[in-house]
Please model this.
Amino acid sequence: MPWGAWESYPQYLDFLASREYALDVGSLVAHGAVRNYVMGERGRRNEAATEGDLDAMRAIVEEALRAGAVGFSTSRILGHRSIQGEPVPGTYANDAEVMAIADAFRRAGSGVFQIIPASTLGEGVPEAMEHTALEAEIDLIARVSATSGRRATFTLFQVDAWSDKWREAIDRVKAANANLGSRVFPQVGSRPTGIVMSLRTYHPFMRRPSYLALRDLPLADRLVAMRRPEIKAAILRESSVAHPHPGTMESGVSLLDVNFAQTFVLDRTSTFEPTAAESFAARAARDGVENPWSWFYDYLVGGDGTRFAIMFFTNYSDYTLDPVRDMQLSDATVTGLSDAGAHVTVIFDAVNPTYQLTYWTRDRRRGPTLPLAHVVHRATKRNADLFGFRDRGLIAPGLRADLNVIDYTRLTLGDLELRQDLPAGGVRLMQGAEGYVATLINGVQTRQFDRDTGARPGRLVRGRP
Model:
């Protein structure tokens, strides 16, 4: 990204339009960026916007939507932090600010309002309580949609603290849509969300003093040292050293209070619907290990040191995916939450479309599956309708030839792998798939038998009224 090549959002979209991609891309205006641009440090400190600030933000968002931004995105949960550890700009935006954005949508006549509401993951903890109840957030989202005349979508999970509140949330949305004329669609996932841990990425021991002394060693040498009983004992009894940038993923995972009852082995055979007996807590107990941290440590340093573990924190309160199935069957929801680029070494749910086709329509054994046509519809036409993309989502004369030709019986997800191919040497967790005979974007074949053809027919998709 050549910073400095653009300033306004229309200029940014023009820059994106000058490039070629493997598939079409769209852009949502980020609340934090708008707030920072207009308010500077006051915006970063989450101070209340003045009338002048609101006018400026309204104008920027309207201009962006008219230029082709497909929507606007904001986060209000306390878990989303800057690298300095402060809540991202917009977290505490008051109703006046949110409704100013709604007015920009009304004036532009296009776009989707997307939000992660406060209390999405529960009420918080005593030292960091969420600022607004989920019910109030849903009411605000409904007002945004009703006032703007535009669709809105928000993140919805099952969380342990209130395992059935997601049902109440869907009922509240349905009532608002019926009574206010809003068009709000809770956005639901396909499986539990989990934090991936390994010695090659992030793990809770990585800021402990004895581990910090070893962290720069090659993996093989690090394993030799970590398997020494005195090193293990030291790491287990130590506390994490504070990170100079408390908002980093390293800092967050190093301070993680691991829920071993919801932590499992992660590999290509993982169904994301394990039994409670497969949890690290249960396995430690069966092995007679009193401290599950010790069992977890031994798991990470076992084998060649490349093992992965995952700790679920949504959508698995009762060790069943039946609630996720109910969310997917609801006519009020849309399918999303892939986190395809947000947490590339901690969450890798970009594989969800393939997981939906394999596990949900074919391979599930712990409960009923989902109809194949239902899953395909939600991945195509329903999401195209959400964003107002009228040129795609169906196989029909006159629409774009965006097609996957799939060998359904052979379709499967592959091995987990780490690729160090991001800017500045960044690492990402990837999982390939087999069974895609061909992929076409607007009639141009981009993949053949699970391999990239090198064609780049993808372009920027601009929103329109």
In short: DSSP finds 17 helices and 17 strands in the chain. The two ends are 29 Å apart (CA to CA). The longest strand covers residues 412-419.
